[in-house]
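Morning F.,

Quick status update on the modeling queue. The single chain you submitted on Monday has been processed. Sequence for confirmation:
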Amino acid sequence: MFNRANLVTFTMLAFAGSTYAQPGEPPATEIRTVSESIQGTEIRDDYRWLEGDDSGNMTDELAEWTDSQNDYTRQVLDNIPGRDKLEARLRELMEIPSISTPSMYGDRYFYRTREGDQPQSIVKVRKGLDGEERVLLDPEEIDPSGLTTVSWTAPNPDGSLMAFGMYYAGDENSTLYVMDVETGEWLAEEIPGKVRLDQWLPDSSGFYYSALEDLDDAYSGVTRFHKLGTHHRQDRTLFRQHDLSTFYGDLDYSEEKLTQLATTWGPWIAPSEDGKWALVGYWTGTSGVDLWAADLDHWYETGELNLETVAIGMEGRPGSMDFSEDTLFMQSTIGAPNGRIVAIDMNNPGYDNWTDIIPEDPNLVLQGTGFADGIISVNYLDKAQTSISLYKLDGSPISELELPGIGSAGLSTSDDRTEAFLTFTSYNTPTSIYHIDLAQPNAEPTLWARPDVPVDPDSVIVKQVWYESKDGTPISMFIVHPKNLELDGNNPTILYGYGGFNVSITPSFSSTMFPWFEEGGVYAIANLRGGGEYGAKWHEAGRMENKQNVFDDFIAAGEYLIDNKYTNSDKLGIAGGSNGGLLTGAVMAQRPDLFAAVECHVPLLDMLRYQDFLMARYWVPEYGSAENPEQFETLLAYSPYHNIQKGVEYPAIFLTAGENDTRVHPLHARKMAALVQASTASSPSEKPVILWVDREAGHGGGKSLDQRVRDIADRRIFMMRQLGVITE
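Structure tokens below.
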């Protein structure tokens, strides 16, 4: 199956003061061809066995194969000169204390910190803004391995109780617990099943929550009510994802339509704080949600859930929302691709009765909304940069909030006060948290927290440039580089992108990029179609049959960087994860000549079979499915795994996966690694194809400090070696 002799075949090269073990051939992988006809096209898969058993689970021989790949990868990365020095520098940067933006409940302020070598962030509380800081929850005390993480927290209205979720080793399957905030004692509550809390009752006697009925079935969503002090098996059920008749029983939907709905993200609930109303939604895709109004008082008293239609069969989705008695204030792209704020009378909630409070702005994208006492804060994106405007509840403008600079900002608000916390960051500005009063927007904000980072933010500059994609569409891109950079076409450059799911990539500070800048490196971030930086239409232009636009945008970004003398194809690397891993895998297959190195993290790569594993049918509305004849043609045209050609000189590629990933199956990275290793005409000693499967991680969340230091060191040293920063 594989040749362990190859695993330790290295050519020893001596350099001044160091010896680098240059990698030989990667472990060989046995070909076991499976052929099948999909939509009348014969598809050959030489590495189907790397998917695992019939259920996609690990087998003994696959575990052995994974060990051999991990061993090879460690020998490649750990033997690069300067690795230890880089890792030490990164650890120094990552051990700098960090703090999150506080949330406010009653007179308590809840937030997270991580200090020094703590493996995970811990939850803290203050009673009063200047009160004594107290640790509420330290996951390392619960699990000394450092692999348990607090995934979410949800204090009750007065802050006397805190529900929270925890999961282990990145699997994201949170179990819910409840703590008495004053005493720190845990209540008896323990609700398993990838749980998230939706809303406490106003008297804190119970709460609504959502979960999976079966962790092995990603489409088994359920929403229930839990009364404190009772066992979760007694919890009352409002609705189940499997019971589509609750939502669509009165509609004449085809079996095909119902099957598609059953495998989306499914239903969710947003109850009002007073417990009277709820907005109920059902995801129809990545850009559409059906909405109903529910009288929770009636359900609580009778057990009868009556859903009144708000909007069904319309493109767009809701965002932040807040109830004020019988009125729901809601951010939405339904009927407004750039977003608007509407008021909905829950007694008469149909779409035709919505009232615009803050209409759509054709030039700005509404990114987020906060609700304070009598004030609505609106976070806009203007050319992928933040501005924040304040309005009264009737929509009349108050002012624009002055920000510290050009970058990304957000507000933490509560609808019972005008007090708020402003967070601001940019590529050259460490994340800073300010305490402000929205009733006095022109007053000088008070700095509440800012990390003391041992780098010089002023040593780099940030530019925003525009370039044309293949079809002439203008695309924006941020470029971050040292101030003394010479545009001589010879600078090592990392190009990052995502381009999917309406996700906006906006400026943010990362201290761990500074070792790259200190070596003269350039970092470019392209705002590709498929994202949300320019509204819902921008997203639509990069999904389904338009997905190739995303790859064209990214390729054009690389060409811009070369044409404008930032770099050249021997010094240009690309990076992306998840949907961004699909991006880097696809452009590597389409333009292997353009890039020297590729980071492809937790990726989707086999686009003909992706929908059959884990929760991936959630993403069919974003990509399509090979089960549909027309969508099959689109997917086959760009599916990275199906477009690798024998004998092509591919760039060096670093693939990663998480063994506990509940989103993207590790099969994608495994199969791609084997295929490119067997296909590339590039020398493995010069352009290695390596795979790292983390046995104690998932899609990326919940990693310990040690894991994160190792991962970032792996990525940076890979790029430094391949892009010529390290030449030994």
